[in-house]
């Protein structure tokens, strides 16, 4: 089942307005992505860890997510130091590990982990519906927000249809293998999902027409700014200025 | 041809049921009334006015509510409040009015406190009742219900049987369950060869049934 593992209603971070969280997560991600100096990157990692710890999320679930992403980063460590040109550090047979390659890999690792941790703490901790509403308040075009919310709404319905089809395959003894029968079956499964999604879309459109839909979408939710939101905004602004300072000065 | 030479009159206060085999055109009939399917020929008058173009149907869609067979087709907004308010907002109500109407409608169906619930996380029965709320919030004069009992447990079924006859509006109800139709409607129609037939008469009939201690002579109430 598709789930939102970091959404914990009672987590401290949920007392901060979702709009504030989206704004600062975006600004923070941009600044970290554009930083190259190690003092700034190490500070960013420390700040992101602090955000995760203070947000009240399940640290084990966060660590599990980090393992997945760092698995991909490991591939970068296997390729970049060996392929990037520059001052050699070590020779292993015909392969040469270069200093710029190691530096670039370290920068990518620190940036990715810092951004990922901050996004988990600030964005993944709110439900997708709340995120949609926050985006709508940030003047993101209404159609894009509605498309996002409709996707969130129906991805679960399509997932249920997918699970029903998979169950139907299993109870009739289907065992995937490396053969034409398996490929054909998976092609049917994907094809059937598209057909069902299309039929569903037509029915939903009819239901919308019946309820007077004229192409306009309305947002009803308002977010209030709490005291914690103001404290969070002040601390985040100071942190962002600090990161920019470290990047420019050091 | 699914529907052929169909002739049907419906008057204010009518509570009618429609029972017919699958594929006989019941849902198509509802979709034609709502203007979702265009008939190849024939005339239709709704609220004493002929309707044939899309503009004609736009005006009547606020007065006739259609409850779809699958609640997931009907509920497309992220939260219950937004879904119930969607109709009133389209009808030109202000946000405050739409929220007020939605809360009242949810209250009347025993769904107070459901406003901020996420629609895809509702149970089947809750989805069905919220779907009904989305239609009722538009304050229709006529309600078309397409198999409202599908996938419902006994408790929600009884709730619907309790709610429907007490609604101050006319409705046509499609169902395969004769007990449900007799409890909630005054006339029961059937469909055959694309036509609607009134089946109001009661017939004495016998059918086989199974239960414990069936050998002992007994009566059913």
Beta-strand proportion of chain B: 5-15%
Which sequence of SSEs, written as H and E, runs from N to C of chain A? Answer: HHHEEHHHHH
Shape assignment of chain B: globular
**Main pleated sheet of chain A:** 2 strands, antiparallel
Would you mind describing this structure in some detail?
The complex is a heterodimer of chains A (250) and B (221). Chain A has 250 residues and is mainly α. Helices cover 72% and strands 4% of the residues of chain A. Chain A has eight helices and two strands, in the order αααββααααα. Chain A has a two-stranded antiparallel ribbon with strand order 1-2. In chain A, a hairpin with a 2-residue loop joins strand 1 (88-92) and strand 2 (95-98). In chain A, helix 2 runs parallel beside helix 4 (99-124), helix 5 packs antiparallel against helix 6 and helix 6 (142-171) crosses helix 7. The longest helix of chain A is centred in the C-terminal third of the chain and has 31 residues, at 180-210. Chain A is flat and about 65 Å long. The mean pLDDT of chain A is 88. By secondary structure, chain B is an alpha/beta fold. Helix content of chain B is 33%, strand content 15%. Chain B has helices at 26-33, 54-60, 71-74, 80-90, 95-108, 124-136, 154-163, 178-184, and strands at residues 15-19, 45-46, 49-50, 64-67, 142-146, 170-174, 187-192, 195-198. In chain B, the strands form two sheets. Chain B has a six-stranded mixed β-sheet, sandwiched between helices. In chain B, strand 5, helix 7 (154-163) and strand 6 form a beta-alpha-beta unit. The longest helix of chain B is centred in the middle third of the chain and has 14 residues, at 95-108. The termini of chain B are far apart. Classes of the chains: A mainly alpha (250), B alpha/beta (221). Chain A binds chain B through residues 127, 129, 132-133, 149-150, 152-154, 156-157, 200, 203-204, 206-214, 216, 218-221, and chain B through 31, 34, 36, 58, 61-62, 65-66, 68, 70, 72-79, 81-82, 85-87, 89-91, 95, 98-99, 118-120, 134-135, 138.
């Amino acid at each position: 089942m598709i789930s939102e593992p970091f959404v914990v209603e009672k987590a401290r971070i949920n007392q901060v307005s979702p709009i504030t969280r989206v704004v600062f997560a975006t600004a923070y991600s941009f600044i970290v992505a554009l930083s190259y100096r190690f003092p700034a990157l190490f500070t960013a990692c420390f700040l992101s860890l602090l955000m995760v710890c203070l947000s009240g999320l399940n640290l084990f679930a966060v660590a599990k997510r980090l393992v997945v992403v760092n698995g991909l980063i490991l591939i970068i460590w296997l390729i970049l130091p060996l392929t990037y040109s520059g001052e050699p550090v070590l020779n292993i047979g015909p392969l040469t590990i270069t200093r710029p390659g190691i530096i670039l890999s370290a920068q990518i690792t620190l940036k990715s982990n810092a951004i990922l941790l901050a996004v988990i703490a600030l964005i993944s901790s709110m439900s997708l519906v709340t995120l949609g509403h926050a985006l709508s308040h940030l003047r993101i075009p209404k159609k894009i927000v509605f498309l996002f919310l409709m996707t969130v709404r129906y991805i679960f319905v399509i997932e249920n249809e997918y699970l029903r089809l998979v169950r139907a395959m299993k109870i009739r003894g289907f065992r995937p293998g490396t053969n034409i029968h398996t490929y054909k079956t998976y092609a049917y499964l994907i094809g059937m999902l598209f057909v069902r999604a299309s039929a569903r879309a037509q029915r939903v459109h009819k239901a919308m027409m019946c309820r007077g839909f004229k192409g306009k979408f309305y947002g009803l939710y308002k977010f209030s700014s709490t005291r914690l939101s103001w404290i969070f905004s002040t601390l985040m602004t100071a942190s962002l200025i600090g990161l920019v300072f470290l990047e420019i000065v050091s | 041809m699914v529907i052929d030479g169909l002739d049907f009159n419906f008057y204010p206060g009518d509570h009618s049921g429609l029972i017919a085999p699958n594929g006989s055109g019941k849902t198509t009939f509802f979709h034609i009334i709502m203007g979702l399917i265009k008939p190849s020929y024939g005339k239709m008058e709704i609220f004493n006015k002929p309707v044939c173009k899309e503009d004609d149907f736009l005006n009547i869609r606020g007065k006739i509510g259609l409850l779809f067979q699958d609640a997931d087709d009907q509920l497309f907004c992220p939260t219950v409040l937004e879904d119930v308010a969607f109709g009133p907002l389209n009808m030109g109500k202000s946000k405050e009015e739409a929220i007020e109407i939605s809360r009242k409608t949810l209250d009347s169906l025993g769904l107070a406190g459901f406003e901020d619930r996420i629609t895809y996380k509702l149970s089947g029965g809750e989805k069905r009742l919220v779907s009904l709320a989305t239609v009722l919030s538009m304050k229709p004069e006529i309600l078309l219900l397409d198999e409202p009992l599908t996938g419902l447990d006994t408790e929600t079924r009884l709730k619907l049987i309790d709610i429907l006859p007490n609604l101050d509006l006319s409705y046509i109800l499609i169902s395969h369950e004769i007990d449900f139709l007799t409890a909630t409607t005054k006339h029961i129609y059937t469909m055959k060869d694309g036509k609607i037939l009134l089946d109001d008469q009661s017939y004495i009939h016998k059918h086989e049934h199974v239960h414990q201690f069936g050998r002992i002579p007994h009566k059913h109430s």
